Amino acid sequence: MFWNNKVCWITGASSGIGEALATKIYHNGGKVILSARTEEKLTSLTESWIEKERLFILPLDLGKHDELQCAAETAYKHWGRIDVLINNAGVSQRSLAIETDFEVMKTIMDVNFLGSACLSKAVVPYMLNQKNGIIAPVSSIAGKFSTPLRTSYSASKMALQGFFDGLRAELFAQGIHVNLIVPGFVKTNISLNALNGSGKKHGVMDPNQASGISPDKAAALIMKGLEKNKREIYIGLFPKLRLGLFLSRAFPGFLAKMLRTAEVK
């Protein structure tokens, strides 16, 4: 089996897609390194897991870039390799650009882009030594086209796309794969935990999020995409997102006009 005995490091593993991936990979025979800011949530999540020897909990805050190199070394030393890194941790936004504090903009970029990029850079040397590995950053459909109330979030995901597209080309000859995960609507707490202009939690579930695919289904699709080495893995693309993606490529001017009057929540 693809996942059997693979060492998989998952950030943002305490809830949503990260939690579902951690659980499925573990139950498919993988060895999992689980990271999130709150250790207690990770401990609670894995309480019923029987084979604790296939589990390593490593608390981590992706916004603290100076700690990521040390974290990567700790993760690597636990089993002597890192086969898969899934950069899932992130934070969204629900505020007009003009009403968003600079510190909120910086936090979003620090976590979503710089945290993911810095952690990946720290892990790459170990994968180069192994001569193989998978890096799977979780982006968003917002990384393909931007909408109101998500300006900084979209910027962070577009930066993610650019960085990892380049990294994929740089590492191809060394046997390291970079597979970008592009979620649309998945039923997680991402909108509840999104930051408003002052940095407080939005606290409202988006209707589209509420009707999205389950984290379990998202995780299954992601794992299947990684097994097939898909360059980009799209999940939860409902019809209007597919339309937006098509228009962004074929008729960007028309999409821009649509977004001016779109009712975005």
Give structural attributes.
single chain, 265 residues, alpha/beta, Rossmann fold, 6-stranded parallel β-sheet, two-stranded parallel sheet, 45% helix, globular
Describe what you observe in this structure.
GO terms for molecular function: oxidoreductase activity. The protein has 265 residues and is α/β, with parallel strands linked by helices. The protein has one domain (7-239): NAD(P)-binding Rossmann-like Domain (Rossmann fold), CATH 3.40.50.720. 45% of the residues lie in helices and 12% in strands. It has helices spanning 16-27, 39-45, 68-79, 102-130, 151-171, 207-210, 215-227, 239-250, 252-260; strands at 7-11, 31-35, 55-57, 84-87, 133-137, 176-178, 180-183, 232-235. The protein has a six-stranded parallel β-sheet, sandwiched between helices. The protein has a two-stranded parallel sheet with strand order 7-8. Helix 8 (239-250) crosses helix 9 (252-260). The protein is globular, with a radius of gyration of 18 Å. The chain starts with 6 loop residues before the first strand and ends in a 5-residue tail after the last helix.
